[in-house]
């Protein structure tokens, strides 16, 4: 597996790769992870790619230089007798993975994890300029001629957005098979010109995480008890953490924990400055075990991203923990268990506060939604999706012959 982001940095892509690796290894397969790392890994199955010194955008180690990364991967893939290359990102580690795989005649599977058009707009400095540079560097390593975009789509209405969609679609079309965790993102990719065989395949949680979650009881909000809410994700504009803070301000009788760090940390602290100390605790980045601890303390999990997320792993963790889930993005409704989640009536703070107030006023709904989440638990296990992933690998190997 080739990725631009891996442990010990935190994020959904890292969590997915960890889950894939554990499930495949338990089935008897050998898995290697190739990624830029701040230091060499003690794990012999995690291989460090050439990594830039003193440059880590958004806190992530950065693969550089590209040619050295491709040459390193060629050596490593050949030496380790790798049979299929599974790429998880779109930056320079990913491009090196394509280069090395093609040089060795290996099939490539590409998972499209997220909307880099939204991410780059939200996180990069001077995005109108930096996306031009990023697209040009990507195009230098991989042709963008296979992308035929539909500029009438609302999410592709700007030149900057089309630049990033062209990058995503081109890379998908250079793969032998594409995996997308959600139907809503898959539909957008096909509409924008992805022609490679594509499988919608849900992410999942590995057995070790489900074991750590344990066997939670359905949540109950008892008389006189404060509603406890948890929010978990990157503190970044595309995740809209300030919408959560604003909703909390509108809703007395609620306490909350926020878990995550990022470029919006200072803005979140400023937005929460007028809240009493006991109303909101912002933890920063913590290990997955502490995320699960926070979920055990909560009555409900909230996601405030809009028109960005594909299939957030934290929602799968919440479902496995028996948490009702409230989302502000209608696209994410497809991953909610029947009766176990809710989409807010509007995506703003008022809509979120309204949804949470409904749970405060009808605590029996929390118990019912929690029971529905727990009944869905088997569907979020990585083991449930492992055989389908192996089928994708076999299809890619057949296509590459």
UniProtKB/TrEMBL annotation:
Single annotated GO MF: glycosyltransferase activity
Q: Which GO terms describe its biological process?
A: carbohydrate derivative biosynthetic process
Q: Which UniProt keywords apply?
A: Glycosyltransferase, Transferase
Q: Which residues form the Glycosyltransferase subfamily 4-like N-terminal domain?
A: 11-206
Task: Report the InterPro entries cross-referenced here.
Answer: Glyco_trans_4-like_N (IPR028098), Glycosyltransferase_grp1 (IPR050194)
Q: What is this protein called?
A: D-inositol 3-phosphate glycosyltransferase
- What is the scientific name of the source organism? Microbacterium foliorum
**Organism lineage:** Bacteria, Bacillati, Actinomycetota, Actinomycetes, Micrococcales
Gene that this sequence comes from? mgs_2
